[in-house]
Amino acid sequence: MDIATVIGFVAILMLMLIGMGFNLGPFVDVQSAAIVVGGTGGALLMSYPLPVILKIGGIMKNAFFNSLPDTGIVITTLVSFSEKARREGLLALEADVESLEDEFMKKGIQLIVDGTDPELVKSILDTEVSFVDERHTVGKGMMDTGASLGPAFGMLGTLIGLILMLGNLSDPGSLGPSMAIALITTLYGSFIANVVFTPIANKLGYYNSREVLSKQMVIEGILSIQAGDNPKVLEEKLKSFLSGSERGAVAPKEGE
pTM of the predicted model, to two decimals? Predict the structure, then answer.
């Protein structure tokens, strides 16, 4: 679970409740919710194919329950494979393939164990990374679209409320409900954009960049193992993907 996402979301809700004086009554309006939530949902349906829309729950869930790839473990694993391959040959890695939890690394190691041409190995793995990036970009794009549509439907609701109010100036009793629609739709639009869609889109974008980085490290490591590079050289190559603080966090090998 991404505890930062959970803490941030709960903190925003609590601060808003404090701002409302823990009195939700004046801020609940079914008509406003229908305009903003229903309108945003309808526009998303118009923007994306139905099979993609049906995945929206899983996409949003990733912002709360995803976990970053541990680049330190990636480096340590690949260096250990490099040492074993130099001692015993590439075929010796076959015994380790099944125990790998990282399916992408498992696929790469299996390819070099099978004697696949290095250029073909790179092409296959690069293609997989491209499709992973594309899938994640679609999910993030859907969140970005929701973030732009929410305030737009909030503004539509505001205009509807104002028109209703101006059309019934002779009826003082209708002015309050019409003004409520005008203002609460703006609130709802801002809420779903700034509390839901935008933070989730940002978190998904960050997760995607880290996963792509991790997979690029795996590709570089696997090609180096296949080329028979010195394990120390391989380690330095992989560390070059990381920031200074991240390099320091990579566990040193025993004996160093």
Answer: 0.83
- Signed CA dihedral, 85, 89, 90, 95: sign only: negative
**Residues 6+ away with beta carbon under 8 Å from 100:** 77, 106, 109
Q: Tens of pLDDT along 38-93?
A: 999 999 999 999 999 999 999 998 888 877 778 888 999 999 999 999 999 899 99
The identity of residue 118, as a single letter, is P
What does the mean pLDDT of the chain come to? 89
Mean of the pLDDT values across residues 155-177? Answer: 82
Cα 2 from Cα 123, distance rounded (Å): 33
> Does the pLDDT value for residue 203 go beyond 90?
yes
Using only C-alpha atoms, what is the Rg of the chain?
A: 26
Residue bearing tokens 């995945």: 55
DSSP the chain: --HHHHHHHHHHHHHHHHHTTT--GGG--HHHHIIIIIHHHHHHHHHS-HHHHTTHHHHHHHHHH-----HHHHHHHHHHHHHHHHHH-GGGGHHHHTT---HHHHHHHHHHHTT--HHHHHHHHHHHHHHHHHHHHHHHHHHHHHHHHHHHHHHHHHHHHHHHHHHTTT-HHHHHHHHHHHHHHHHHHHHIIIIIIHHHHHHHHHHHHHHHHHHHHHHHHHHHHHHT--HHHHHHHHHTTS-HHHHHHSPPPTT-
